[in-house]
Amino acid sequence: MTKQLMRGSHAIAEAATRAGCRFYAGYPITPQNELPEYMSVRFAQLEDATFVQAESELAAINMVMGASMAGVRAMTSSSSPGISLKQEGISYMAGMELPAVIVNIMRGGPGLGNIAPSQQDYLQATKGGGHGGYRTIVLAPCSGQELVTLTIKAFDLADAYRSPVILLGDGLMGQMMEPVIFPDPIDPAALPKKDWTLDGARGRDSRLIASLHLDPTEMEQFNWKLARKYAAICERETEHESYLLDDAVVAVVAFGTAARIAKGAVNRVRKAGLKAGLFRPITLWPFPGKELRDLTRTIKSLLVFEMNFGQMVEDVKLSVGEQARVHFHGRPGGIIPTPHDIGAAITKLIHRYGL
Amino acid sequence: MAKQVFTRPKALKDNIFHYCPGCGHSIIHRLLAEVIDELGIRDKTVGVPPAGCAVLAYNYIDVDMGEAPHGRAIAVATGIKRTRPDLIVFTYQGDGDIAAIGTAETIHAANRGERLSAIFVNNGVYGMTGGQMAPTTLLGQTTTTSPGGRLPLRDGFPLDLSQMLAVADGSVYIERTAVTSPKNIIKTKRAIKKAFQVQMDDLGFALVEILSQCPINWKLSPVDACKWVEEEVVKSYPLGVIKDTTQAQNRMDRMKRGKRAKT
After folding, report:
1. What pLDDT does residue B249 have?
2. For residue A44, how many C-alpha atoms fall within 13 Å in the half-sphere facing its CB?
3. What is the residue-averaged pLDDT of chain B?
4. Contacting residues of B for A96, CB less than 8 Å apart
5. For B70, which of A88, A105, A338, B125 is 20 to 30 Å away at the CA?
C-alpha cells in the first residue's frame, strides 16, 4: 500500500483496471486524453483486456454496450461535448439494464465551449441526459484518492443495479496530481457471475437483451420496474460529506472541485470567527436531499456554490423547501474560483443576515 | 416409406413471420438459420439486429441476441466480439441502418478488420417507417420523400457501400447477392456461409449485401418486385463477389489478431 503521486485521469484509469474493468473504448477529447492514453498502455499488459480507440464517441459507447452484453466490466470516458454524443447509448443501456461506467471530465460550455474545468453538465448527468426518462447514478469525486474509491464504487454499483453509472469530474480533477493509494486488484473471474449475458445459448434457451417493448402495457411495466429500482437506489445509496457543520450558521453546499475550493473558504472564514461549514453531496443522483433537509433543523442559511450559473441549486431548493434560505454563488464558463472568492460570498451572507 | 426432405432449421423459432407478403427478410432469416445449423454454431452465436423491419429478428432466429441502436449494430458487435473472441457474432442491418446512419461505424469496423459477419439487407427504402428514400434508392425511384423520383442534385446518388468497404484493408470478403429466385437464394446461402466461415477462420471483416424486395413500399406485386430487382436494381448494384482476399498470403500475415502487439 504505497502512496503514489498521480494525475487524476491516470488514477481513474488505474482504479478501473483494479476494479476488474477489462474493456475500454474512447475517443480523444481534452481535458481527459490522459485517461485513454493510460488505458491503452495498461490494457496492453493484460491478456484479457481490450482497448479500442473508436471512430467516434457514439461508436465508443456502443462498443461498451456490446462488451457489457458479453458480461465484462466496461468503461468509456469523455468530456462534455463527447458525453452529449454518448447519451443515445446511455439511454439504450438504461433501457436494457446494462452496467457500464461513463467518466465525464467536464469542461466549459455550451457547444464547443472551452477546455477549462466546469460543472456545467450537472443537470444532464443527474436528470437522465438522453431520451426516455431514465436515471443514472452520478458520483462526484473531489480528490485524487476519491477518484480511486469512487471509480471502484462506480463499477460495483453498475453491476449491483445493472445500470450505467457516471463518474462526474472536471478538468481540474482530471489534470491535478495528488498522492493516491490503490487497493489490491480484483480478479475479474472472482466477481459475482452474471446470469443474463450473451455468451452463446449453450445448454440453455437463447437470450435477448433489448429495449424494444412495442406493447405499451409491457413498456409501462418495464418503466415501473425501473422506477422501483431507482427508488431502491435513492433509499440505499446516497452519500455525502459533512464538514464543520455542528455549530455552523451557514452551510455551503457544493460538489466536486467546487466543494474542494469551498472547504478552503470555510477554513478561511472560520479563522475570522465566522461559523460556516460544508455539505458535500458525493452522490449527485441519488441526491442526499433527506440529509440536507435534516440539516435545516439547525442551519437556516444555505449557500449553494457551483461552477455553473445554477443547476444543483434546484435540487437543494426542492429538498429543503421553506425550511431554509437558499442562496447561490456561481462561476460558469470554466472559471476556477478561489477560496477568497467564495469566502467573500460567505462573509457577505453572514453580515447581511446578521448570523 | 415417406422420406423427410424439408424441415424447419433448429435455429429458426416456430413463430409466424410478421413481414409483409413477398418481403425478402423471411427468406434471409431462414437462410441464416440453415447456415447456423450446418456450421453447428447455434450455441456460440450472438446476433445483433438493427432498428427497422428486422428489429424483431430475435423472434425468429434462435440464438442469443442483443439489440443495437439504429446504425450502431457493428459497434455493439465489436464490443461483444472483442470481449468474447470465441463467439461467432453477426449483425443484421438494413440499408438505412448500415449505409446512412451507421456508415461511420461500418467503415471503421471493416477497416479494423473486426472479426464480424455483417448481413446487409438492401431494399432501397426505409421499410418500417413507410418507404422513405434510402441512400441506396435508385435514381428516378419514387419514394415518400423523393416525389417524382430521386434526383441527384437534390437527393444525391445511390451509395454503393459494399464498394466503399472493399477499399478498406481490413475487409476480407464482400459479396452482393439477391433472393429473387431459387438460384439466387442458393447463392445467397453460400455467401452467408462463407461470411461466417471467414469469421470462424479469424481472417477479418466479412459482409454479404443482399438485394431484397419490398413489394409493399415499392407498390409492386411480389413477382413484379423480384423482376424489378433483377432488371433494374442490379444495374446500380451488380451481383457477384466484390472482394475476396481470403487466400491472400500477405494479408494473412498482416492481419493476425491472435498475437496482437503488446507493449
Report:
1. 64
2. 11
3. 94
4. 66-67
5. A105
Q: What is the CATH number of the domain that holds B105?
A: 3.40.50.970
Alpha carbons A268 and A342: distance in angstroms, whole number? 10
**Phi, psi for A228 (deg, rounded to 5):** -65, -40
A201–B42 CB contact, under 8 Å? yes
User: Chain A within 8 Å of B14 (Cβ-Cβ)?
Assistant: no
How close B216 gets to chain A, by Cα (Å)? 22
Dump pLDDT digits (tens) for B14-29. Answer: 999 999 999 999 999 9
Tell the CATH topology of A4-200+224-236.
Answer: Rossmann fold (3.40.50)
**A313: three-class secondary structure by DSSP:** helix
Q: How many CB pairs under 8 A join A and B?
A: 144
Residues of chain A with Cβ-Cβ distance to B56 below 8 Å are 212
Mean confidence (pLDDT) of chain A: 97
Cα gap B44→B85, rounded to integer Å: 10
- What residues of chain A lie within 8 A of the CB of B62, using their CB? 201, 206
Q: Note whether B48 contacts A: Cβ–Cβ < 8 A.
A: yes
Q: Where are the alpha helices (DSSP H) in B100-221?
A: 103-111, 152-155, 161-167, 182-200, 215-218
Interval B64-78: pLDDT, tens: 999 999 999 999 999
Q: What is the pLDDT of residue B262?
A: 42
What are the boundaries of each domain within chain A?
4-200+224-236, 242-352
Which ipTM did the prediction report?
0.95
The domain A242-352 is placed in CATH, from the list 3.40.50.920, 2.20.25.90, 3.30.2290.10, 3.30.390.50, at 3.40.50.920
